[in-house]
Design brief:
Blueprint (H helix, E strand, L loop, with lengths): L4 E5 L3 H13 L3 E5 L2 H11 L3 E5 L7 H9 L6 E5 L4 H7 L6 E4 L4 H17 L1 E3 L2 E4 L2 E4 L4 E4 L2 E3 L3 H12 L5 E2 H9 L7 H15 L9 E4 L3 E4 L2
Parallel strand pairs: 1-2, 1-3, 3-4, 4-5
Antiparallel strand pairs: 6-7, 7-8, 8-9, 9-10, 11-13, 12-13
Helix pairs in contact: 1-5, 2-3, 6-7, 6-8, 7-8
Bound molecules: calcium ion (CA).
Length: 227
């Protein structure tokens, strides 16, 4: 089995060293970059399976690095932030990170998140426009949804919401972002609408809507599809 490659972008040597040691111990092939520009150069050479990216970096900061990577790749990115409340702001910026960890963090927690994100991204098998998650099958072409119990009947909007979240599995979206992406311009924009649609969608897609398997609430932020 080939080792997963991880690029760690962190300018604080002691943090970089600890993260490096923990990830190597877990069997990953790790490269370090200490600033944003070198991170992008290293990214192109190394082609990592995952990037651990510090937000505050000299030169090009973590946001810029994330945008550059996202412009041409879906490589999972875990952002390291200075404070927990920065996470809301980052999610609001739609930079497309797959997970966030606030500093100070335990290296063991980071290693666990790395493992979870890699598992999640490798589990999403996309064949054409059909997304499969365990028993759930979502076809973008025929706009149909099935699970172990059979076909699930959704309204157009419910389908759009489900398909959008599932296509970006693991990514957290605020209600406003969902309004922008799923409801488009035609809608005046009331984020209560998202809550209502999510509740209906859960009642149709989730066998136990009070304990959803896929359609998760991220408290204080919004929603995500957990594959
Ligand atoms: Ca830093």
């Amino acid at each position: 089995m080939t080792q997963d490659r991880i690029l760690v972008v962190e300018d604080e040597p002691t943090v970089a060293e600890v993260v490096d040691r923990y990830l190597r111990r877990d069997g990953y092939d790790v490269r370090l970059a200490h600033d944003g520009l070198r991170a992008l150069a290293e990214y192109d050479r190394f082609l990592p399976d995952l990037v651990v990216l510090d937000l505050m970096l000299p030169g090009l900061d973590g946001l810029e690095v994330c945008r550059h990577i996202r412009a041409h790749a879906t490589t999972p990115i875990i952002m390291l932030t200075a404070r927990g409340d920065e996470v809301d702001k980052l999610v609001g910026l739609q930079i497309g990170a797959d997970d966030y960890i606030a500093k100070p963090f335990s290296p063991r927690e980071l290693a666990a998140r790395v493992k979870a994100v890699l598992r999640r991204t490798s589990m999403v098998q996309q064949d054409g426009d059909t997304l499969r998650f365990n028993g759930l099958r979502i076809s973008g072409r025929t706009r149909t949804v099935e699970d172990e119990r059979g076909a699930i009947s959704l309204t157009a909007r419910e389908f759009d919401l489900l398909f959008f979240l599932a296509r970006h599995a693991g990514q957290v979206f605020s209600r406003d972002q969902l309004l922008d992406n799923v409801w488009d311009y035609e809608f005046p924009g009331d984020d209560g609408t998202v809550t209502v649609h999510m509740r209906r969608l859960r009642s149709k897609v989730e066998p136990d809507p009070s304990r959803p398997r896929h359609l998760k609430t991220v408290w204080g932020v919004g929603y995500k599809f957990e594959p």
